[in-house]
Design goal:
Elements: E1 2-7, E2 17-19, E3 24-29, E4 33-38, H1 44-58, E5 63-68, H2 75-79, E6 87-90, H3 92-101, E7 107-112, E8 120-126, H4 128-138, E9 144-149, H5 158-166, E10 171-176, H6 180-190, E11 198-202, H7 211-224, E12 227-230, H8 234-238, E13 242-246, H9 248-263, E14 272-275, E15 278-283, H10 284-289, H11 296-299, E16 304-306
Parallel strand pairs: 2-5, 4-5, 4-6, 6-7, 7-8, 8-14, 9-10, 9-11, 11-12, 12-13, 15-16
Antiparallel strand pairs: 1-3, 13-15
Helix pairs in contact: 1-9, 4-5
């Protein structure tokens, strides 16, 4: 079986990465899995490298890497691939372009903060079960989790999140905001009502938390002893209690295994899945202020603790 690949004029590099800088066509043997990912600078390049490395490990046959710069589109490239070959597309820009024009392909998307129709993949939003397991471990007194989000946010199955949290005795409170301006007002009105039994979850997309809002939110959490946790580990450095964020290698491993299952005709039950492969980072200074004792048992469930200063 033969596939046609648009390869760089220089051909395949010694690292096995194809860079689409030219327009030469080369006929090659069909590749079992093609991984398309953006060509970006550090530190983001390291993130995609970890995801790709995990996907290569999770897949059980040959894998071809294809990196693409901002001015390159994967649409024509994917179009000429053998239809039997699954294609893993990483990053929001490439995933959006490919899914809009190649619906007939066996597509898997990863490292994305949006849902896509008619494709398989894993989003960057932590699975509700992960949050429900970690939150009572760190802050057992929390009874309500607040999320400020865009009404069009399709990253979370809010009914599922509600059910999972309720099993831990925690209610989910959803506050809708269309943009940053409206969200700022929502946060302003919400913060005076919060106490040590409340937590605010900052999602990777649609929570409208810029630097100014984050600074106010963290200041108020310090004063009123409510919890702020996030899907962005940088927020922990700023003072959020903890972050649940992707373990990039293991996420890639799961994507590779998903691609393998699809290649074997065994499709996952759910097309787009929430993130289960995560790291947990905790700010020890914030935990001390909130009166949280990071016992040895709790520490065994944490991947990184930022020391108190």
């Amino acid at each position: 079986m033969v596939s046609v690949f648009w390869l760089a004029l220089a051909g395949l590099s010694s690292t096995g990465v194809v860079s689409l800088a030219g327009a030469a066509t080369v006929a090659e043997e069909a590749i079992d899995l093609v991984i398309i990912y953006p060509e970006v600078r550090e530190p983001f390049a390291r993130i995609f490298e970890e995801v790709v490395r995990g996907a290569e490990e999770g897949y059980q046959q040959e894998v071809r890497r294809v990196s693409m710069a901002d001015n390159q589109s994967p649409v024509d490239f994917v179009h000429v691939l053998d239809q039997s070959s699954p294609v893993l597309v990483l990053g929001n820009r490439l995933a959006r372009q490919v899914t809009e024009h190649n619906a007939d392909r066996r597509l898997i998307v990863g490292a994305v903060n949006s849902e896509y129709n008619n494709v398989f993949g894993i989003t960057l939003v932590p699975d509700a079960a992960v949050v429900a397991a970690k939150l009572p471990l760190l802050v057992p007194d929390v009874r309500t989790v607040h999320i400020v989000t865009n009404p069009d946010n399709n990253l979370l199955d809010f009914d599922h999140v509600t059910t999972v949290l309720q099993q831990q005795g925690i209610e989910l409170s959803i506050h809708r905001a269309e943009d940053v301006r409206v969200a700022a007002g929502v946060y302003r009105d919400l913060m005076p009502t919060l106490s040590e039994q409340d937590a605010v979850w900052i999602l990777p997309k649609g929570s409208f938390v810029n630097n100014a809002v984050l600074a106010i939110l963290l200041h108020e959490s310090w004063e009123k002893y409510f919890v702020v946790f996030s899907s962005n580990p940088i927020h922990v450095k700023r003072g959020a209690l903890f972050s649940i964020y992707p373990n990039n290698y293991k996420m890639g491993l799961s994507l590779g295994r998903m691609a393998w299952d699809i290649a074997q005709g065994n499709s996952p039950q759910r097309q787009m899945q929430a993130l289960e492969d995560v790291f947990i980072t905790v700010n020890e200074r914030t935990s001390n202020h909130l009166g949280i004792n990071l016992s040895d048992d709790i520490r065994s469930h944490i991947d990184l603790i930022l020391p108190a200063r």
